[in-house]
Request: fold
Amino acid sequence: MALQAVPSGTSPKTLTNRRSSPYPPKVDHTYAIQSLSAFLQELKPLMADLEVAAKRRDGQWPDWPHEQAVTLAELRPIIETYVPNGLAALSDYRPDSIAYWELTRLAATEALGRAKFANDNPTFQHTSTPSFDARALHPWVWEPAAPLWAAEAHQDAVLAAARVINRRLQLKLGRHDVGDKSLCMQSFSTKDPTNDQPRLRFTGDRNSQTWVARQEGAMLLSAGAFFGIRNLAAHEETVTWTPQEALEYLATFSVVARWIEECSVETAP
Reply:
């Protein structure tokens, strides 16, 4: 796919008026500096080719910069760490336009500058808070979600994770007649198993309030995750989730996945 010029006079939106945000703790600024510097060097010949092509009248444009697009996808979390809304305006431009790559270069340059002087920022003197690594989510959650998340399809990522967990639960219990919320309510129930309804059981003293509370909590939380999160992702054409909210929903399903894997299956005598 060839790159196309944007109408004369079109330019990327400025990178001003961004909401300031403290950097996450334990940011590897050295890695960020190296990665962003290499990316900006990689963009130089592309931008030079685009500028030359824009002045030509024969309609010839460079081929689609596949390598730069892949690198941008990899570095986007880094850029957005330093410049939270720096790439937000990319959605306003065609990905094969000059403006798209000019905006990318501006955001990456600003991120590089902030990374170089990050340790001089007073916020780094504050007590650090825990960081969250999505790759540490349960594999039933992150493996199906990761490619969709990389494509910024956050709603689809949550739905994919929920579907995998539902399938894993069905396989573990050997049940394919019911799923999602209903299966969670039945599988974590404190009632004795029946011939057609095996149960999931945590270890521990089943006569203790702690064990009962844990079973009931797992029943309600897992059912709620499917009822309140999965159903919305599946039945609404578009949800208004921010990436942070979608990540929290993935984390909820990760808890459910760990409980399912931890529990043993109890069948009727």
Summary: The beta strands are 199-201, 264-266. Residues 1-21 have pLDDT under 50 and may be disordered.
